[in-house]
Inverse folding.
């Protein structure tokens, strides 16, 4: 198996947090040379995850953020002070040698740093430049700022996650930091494929809110074609299934504190099997025999079903229902899905990476395997300036003395 | 390799041919590739994909050609019908693969092997072929892949545990819109493009195994890495991050009954000054006595966030800022709150429904809603548009989703079959 299949791709990487760092993590795991550029004056803390919990032990500071390590495995990290003339010169040299420049600053920041797209193109005519910000670089909100939950709010994702007669539940994490990173990776890869085939670079302006808005396609067509808005009585009710409609379909209480089971009946035969398992009068009621009937009396169906599941252990129930071919799974806690799931272990989904200071730490791996050029995660996220010698020495050809000089001048 | 020959194309993926075996789990991956210019040929069984039966329908009339779900997930693709259970169907499939760069499929593990159409068999003749398989648990994974749905993937994969309400008597929530399938498809597209990029330099074809459950399992942010790093278990909270310990609410009902999220409260003296000015402008300083703390924040030389909790005055200042945002929000509409705060550099969000977002002036100004002509219906409909703006190779819906068998003649013709051969194939069950 050939690792490092993308080793011919060099990335001048300004991304941070998860929304950007997640994109270049993918590239790095396939061997691309991803060089994180960080500000020595602010100790790289533009990426606040550098010093945020969780921590492996009592040590704190910009080299100990658990999230940062998770999102930056296999990347190189250098420091570079772009306030200095020498710093800007060095960045120009790195850009000349890079296939891709990626960032997720607020719009306008790269221009202010003196490295807007026009300048990048001067330095490297076929550069692929992919920016990722909340609202994109044009339009009335181009100057507005976001983080994951704001993106989710404005793009409809918060609204469409919830139960009737309740405020929006939203997403209990930055789903759009993950997904913004996926779109940034897709944009990068598509632009690199185009460049490989034509020699042409380009700028991709990724607006995270737009990316989020594309995730509601069917609901949006229901609005534009049928005039049916998602904001309507009884909606959203996202534990139910809209495309296609099916019932029962939901998350039901199981025995124990905060224990739940997800159950879906995709057709009448699955309901018949479930009704057989339940074996109570209500389940035999003919009004539930057809999908139309179950949808018409869905509230009652859900109440009855939950009264039945509520006294049963979620794992026992899962097994019993799967035995008769009904989609049913326990809602898993982090420790259950990470440590106790055979599918996860066989996949090696959470590999251990070696961090210079934290030691061995498990991180999110990738949910794909390539038969010939699979991903590879071994090194943790870089400590601040960890690869200064390697990058300034090997890539730019500076001597040890020159690098020491840069350090003394506060350039790196 | 199909047509492109490295020619300059107006689309990023022009000339790349993808054969897709239609499936609800993977249709979105095909759409993402097709909207970037790949020639995606979707294969349905003769009776049509089950997705054609998914609600909602145009004008709520169930019809093979009326599923809006089908419409959305199959834009820019061409469509043929092919019965892979028949010899002639499989023969046709192989001829199609002769012309393809990439096969995208979501069949149950083992099924294509039974049909003699698995990657290993096809690659024997086409070493450059890339196959991307999306399945609920991977090709070898434990788990009942035949019972997986978007809901079960998200419940087993972790997202459901993190989403819901402070009130834990309410069930955890699956976010709407089939996000489990879509997450798997994002990874499938990243995989497809990575494999193509690798092939450009090496000529290497390969098989990619995409695991939808695993995709959800690594799309859970803190929930995963708090467990991985420090064995912490997060708990769900209304409209904000699930955390190990409960945090202050961030979601507010505004004066118009709609909601906003307050995001990051002011942290610098300048931001406190701006917030104070806003309170003054709205004439709310008398009704909000804590305004005094906001002014104190504005007058500080600097604010050291690490002192929150130990410096009483600073703690009061910081708490008052969030209270002030909540108070303003309760007095104005959700949109006015959003606009007022963002124009002042304070990061908050209006909680839009999807249709409200699409109608917002910003998204319109950027050309997000796009018009797609359905010639057969003599009508044009508005679709959600580009997730990214490519400078030189724009995203584009090149055609509406294919009608059942719409491109049979065209594509079988491209394969070099004569009209007579096509007729014979059709008569023997190809369609």
């Amino acid at each position: 198996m050939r690792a490092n299949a993308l080793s011919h791709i060099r990335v001048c990487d300004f991304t941070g947090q998860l929304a950007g760092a997640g994109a270049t993590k993918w590239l790095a795991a396939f061997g691309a040379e991803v060089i994180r550029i960080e500000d020595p004056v602010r100790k790289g803390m533009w990426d606040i995850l550098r010093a945020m919990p969780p921590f492996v032990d009592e040590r704190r500071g910009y080299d100990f953020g658990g999230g940062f390590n998770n999102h930056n495995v296999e990347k190189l990290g250098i420091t570079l002070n772009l306030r200095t003339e020498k710093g800007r010169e060095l960045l120009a040299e790195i850009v000349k040698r890079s296939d891709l420049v990626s960032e997720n600053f607020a719009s306008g920041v790269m221009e202010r740093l003196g490295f807007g797209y026009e300048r990048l193109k001067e330095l490297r005519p076929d550069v692929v430049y992919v920016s990722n910000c909340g609202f994109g670089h044009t339009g009335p909100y181009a100057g507005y700022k976001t983080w994951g939950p704001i993106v989710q709010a404005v793009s409809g994702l918060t609204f469409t996650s919830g139960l009737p007669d309740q405020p929006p539940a939203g997403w209990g994490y930055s789903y759009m930091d993950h997904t913004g990173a996926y779109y940034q990776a897709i944009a990068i890869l598509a632009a690199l494929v185009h460049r490989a085939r034509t020699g042409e670079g380009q700028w991709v302006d990724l607006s995270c809110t737009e990316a989020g808005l594309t995730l509601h396609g069917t609901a949006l067509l229901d609005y534009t074609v049928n005039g049916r808005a998602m904001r309507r009585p009884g909606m959203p009710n996202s534990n139910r299934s809209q495309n296609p409609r099916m019932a029962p379909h939901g998350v039901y209480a199981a025995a124990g504190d905060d224990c739940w089971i997800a159950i879906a009946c995709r057709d009448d035969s699955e309901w018949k099997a479930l009704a057989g398992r339940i074996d109570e009068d209500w389940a035999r009621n003919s009004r539930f025999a057809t999908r139309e009937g179950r949808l018409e009396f869905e509230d009652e169906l859900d109440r009855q079903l939950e009264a039945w599941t509520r006294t049963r252990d979620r794992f026992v129930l899962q097994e019993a229902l799967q035995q008769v071919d009904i989609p049913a799974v326990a809602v898993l806690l982090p420790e259950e899905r990470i440590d106790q799931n055979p599918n996860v272990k066989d996949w090696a989904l959470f590999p251990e990476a070696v961090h210079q200071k934290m030691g061995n730490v498990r991180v999110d791996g990738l949910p794909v395997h390539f038969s010939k050029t699979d991903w590879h995660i071994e090194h943790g996220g870089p400590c601040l300036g960890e690869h200064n010698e390697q990058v300034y020495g090997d890539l730019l050809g500076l001597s040890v003395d020159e690098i020491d000089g840069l350090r003394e001048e506060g350039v790196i | 390799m199909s047509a492109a020959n490295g020619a300059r194309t107006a689309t990023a993926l022009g000339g790349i041919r993808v054969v897709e075996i239609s499936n609800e789990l993977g249709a979105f991956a095909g759409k993402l590739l097709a909207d970037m210019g790949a020639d995606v040929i979707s294969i349905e069984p003769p009776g049509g994909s089950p997705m054609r039966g998914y609600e909602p329908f145009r004008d709520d009339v169930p019809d093979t050609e009326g599923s809006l779900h089908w419409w959305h997930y199959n834009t820019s693709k061409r469509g043929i019908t092919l019965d892979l259970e028949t010899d002639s169907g499989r023969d046709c499939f192989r001829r199609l693969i002769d012309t393809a760069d990439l096969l995208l499929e979501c069949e149950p593990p083992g099924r294509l092997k039974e049909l003699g159409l698995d990657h290993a068999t096809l690659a024997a003749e086409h070493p450059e072929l890339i196959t991307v398989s999306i399945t609920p648990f991977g090709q070898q994974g434990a788990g009942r892949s035949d019972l997986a749905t978007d809901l079960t993937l998200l419940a087993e994969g972790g997202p459901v545990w993190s989403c819901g309400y402070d009130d834990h008597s309410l069930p955890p929530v699956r976010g709407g819109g089939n996000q489990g399938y879509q997450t798997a498809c994002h990874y499938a597209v990243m995989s497809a493009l990575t494999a193509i990029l690798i092939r450009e330099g090496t000529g290497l074809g390969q098989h990619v195994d995409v695991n939808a459950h695993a995709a959800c399992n690594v799309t859970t942010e803190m929930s995963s890495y708090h467990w991985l790093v420090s064995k912490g278990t997060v708990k769900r909270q209304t409209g904000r991050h699930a955390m190990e310990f409960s945090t202050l609410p961030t979601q507010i009902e505004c004066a118009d009954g709609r909601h906003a999220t307050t995001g990051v409260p002011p942290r610098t003296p300048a931001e406190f000054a701006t917030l104070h000015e806003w309170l003054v402008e709205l004439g709310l300083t008398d009704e909000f006595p804590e305004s005094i703390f906001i002014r104190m924040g504005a007058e500080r030389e600097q604010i050291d966030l690490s002192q929150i909790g130990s410096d009483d005055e600073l703690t009061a200042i910081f708490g008052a800022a969030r209270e002030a945002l909540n108070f303003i929000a309760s007095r104005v509409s959700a949109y006015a709150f959003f606009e007022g705060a963002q124009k002042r550099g304070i990061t908050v969000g209006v909680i839009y429904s999807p249709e409200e977002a699409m109608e917002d002036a910003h998204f319109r100004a950027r050309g997000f809603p796009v018009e797609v002509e359905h010639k057969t219906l003599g009508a044009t409909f508005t679709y959600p548009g580009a997730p990214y703006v490519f400078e030189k190779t724009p995203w584009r819906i090149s055609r509406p989703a294919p009608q059942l068998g719409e491109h049979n003649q065209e594509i079988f013709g491209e394969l070099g079959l004569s009209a007579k051969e096509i007729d014979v194939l059709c008569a023997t069950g190809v369609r």
Observations:
- Chain A touches chain B through 151 residues (CB under 8 Å).
- The longest helix of chain A spans residues 175-198.
- Residues 260-330 of chain A form one domain.
- The longest strand of chain A covers residues 33-38.
